[in-house]
Amino acid sequence: MDRIVDPLRSVLVAQVRKAEASHCMDTTTGLLRGRHFQGPKSTVYLGDVAQAVLAHLTLPETPRFTEPPGYNEQRWTLETQSGELSVQIESKPYWGLGLITSGYLNVIALEGPLEDRSRIVLDVMSSLGQPPWEMAHPRGAERFMMRRDGMNLKANETAWAALRNNAKTSLSERIQAYVQRRDETVSAIQDDEATVGWLNAIEEDIHMAKQALSEDNAPGVERALARVEASLIHLNQKGEHPVVSAPAERFAVTGPVSELGGSSKPSDTPAASLLAPDDDVPFLDLAANADEEE
């Protein structure tokens, strides 16, 4: 893995299979916009690969075109930033003078942490549904890559697969960490009917996480592990000490405070008993006073 995955940068080539005029470029700022943008604009054919990459970035900056589309609306270069990950996508014709969509490919340059690059590759490959390295016109693609970066189709496929496998290995390690936490929790809590129910739920969610990983569904893995985390937190709380309630009866502090340096002592008599049984409660008859004034 270390021999074929660069620690800082990855360059991948993908076949474009679908493209339509769903976006535009703001000609004032050079920023990517939706096709309904009302300002000065020029049409852009973004393509399925570029849309998949941008859709799976976490809070990316608005992409900016460094090579704007011209007469050829599918030939362009854009850049964006997503956290520590820098992304550049080039759309270039490589076969048939670019007269049809299958004659275009995207060159994707990713710079940043290996974990971020691996995750975006896994998500893109999962959403596309077809290996992006499979070219519609292999000979033309081979010539293009050799002229540009000295790559070939096999090396490109290996680069894609290496990043995907790195992401899957990371997710598999996370699943295994939760399995270990489950085992530690089981050994530390009392086995009862309620506990068995929670453990069954944890077991099912771990199974679902493994199933999602086998389908390259990283978001599915994360959702399942989030449920496991919540269940483990609930089970771990079962072993905590209960909260001690305050006394039901409260007594008033009565009696004089002792001299400086001494201490005060609460009376043993409840506050309600300070009033003698025969004592009358003072009562002011407001109605009577009102009659006298009349």
Indicate the topology.
Blueprint (H helix, E strand, L loop, with lengths): L8 E7 L7 E4 L5 E3 L6 E4 L3 H8 L8 E4 L8 E7 L2 E9 L10 E8 L2 H15 L9 H12 L3 H36 L4 H22 L3 H20 L48 H8 L1
Antiparallel strand pairs: 1-8, 2-3, 2-4, 5-6, 6-7, 7-8
Report the uncertain regions: 241-279, 290-294
Range of helix content: 40-55%
Radius of gyration: 35 Å
Report the structural category: alpha+beta
Extended strand count: 8
The total number of structural domains is 2
Shape: elongated
Q: Count the DSSP helices.
A: 7
Q: How can the largest sheet be summarized?
A: 5 strands, antiparallel
Strand content: 15-25%
The span between the termini is 103 Å
The strands making up the biggest β-sheet line up spatially as 1-8-7-6-5
List SSEs in N-to-C order: EEEEHEEEEHHHHHH
Question: Would you tell me the overall average pLDDT?
Answer: 83
Which tags fit this structure?
294 residues; elongated; disordered C terminus; alpha+beta; 5-stranded antiparallel sheet; 3-stranded antiparallel sheet; 2 domains
Overview of the molecule:
Strand 5 and strand 6 (76-82) form a beta hairpin. The chain starts with 8 loop residues before the first strand and ends with a helix. The protein is built from seven helices and eight strands. Helix 4 (153-188) runs antiparallel to helix 5. It is 41% helix and 16% strand. The radius of gyration is 35 Å and the shape is elongated.
